[in-house]
Please model this.
Amino acid sequence: MKKWFFVSDLHLLARRSQADRYWERLERAISQASRFVLGGDIFDFRWATTRDIGLAVQEAIGWLERLVQQHPDCQFHLVLGNHDHHWAFLCRLDGLAEKYANFRWHPYYLRLGEHIFLHGDVAERKMGPEKLAIFRVRWHYRPRRGRLMSQLYEFWMASRLPRALGPLVYPKWRVARRILAYLRRIGHGPEQGVRHVYFGHIHRGFSGYRYRGLVFHNTGPAVRGHRFRLLEVGQEESLD
Model:
């Protein structure tokens, strides 16, 4: 019986990514999956180690292309996050979707039955769709960070501080409240049948957190100093 899975925040292309440590687990999940949702910040163009954005985008497209070619029986959905919402990358995604029937991309969210998948940057502050669009546009042309800033950022992310500060900056109740407000603004709240929310962004993994009629699930990031989890949404028969 085929399954659905969700993963977010691999931050591929960045030095801090440790996605390769989890690749065997991801491959096993994909081999069992009928749908696999990539929930944003799969690539990190802001902190990419390549010498220019063109090479970074080419690497990202190549990674997606290999994925969909090697697993033709799995339907892949890419939901963009802020770190991979770069104009040069967006320009290539329609072509990829036209070439491969098992690939679709979504700029802000994906609704499948009672499940909704989004990156989660709406948890930064109260946002409706207009404010989210403005927030994302700021990432369209952001240049890669230089070597010194990258090294400082790597040092910060490798320390225990980001993980320790997570519960203070992103308490579950506040994150859930902001996401719920956004979902209601776009017409996909619990009143419209949504029950489960899958998201990333906040770099704080948890599953099964209940808030006002919704159940929230977060993967955590595949980066140093954090815990990462692959989330099984359920089995296809039970999701129909």
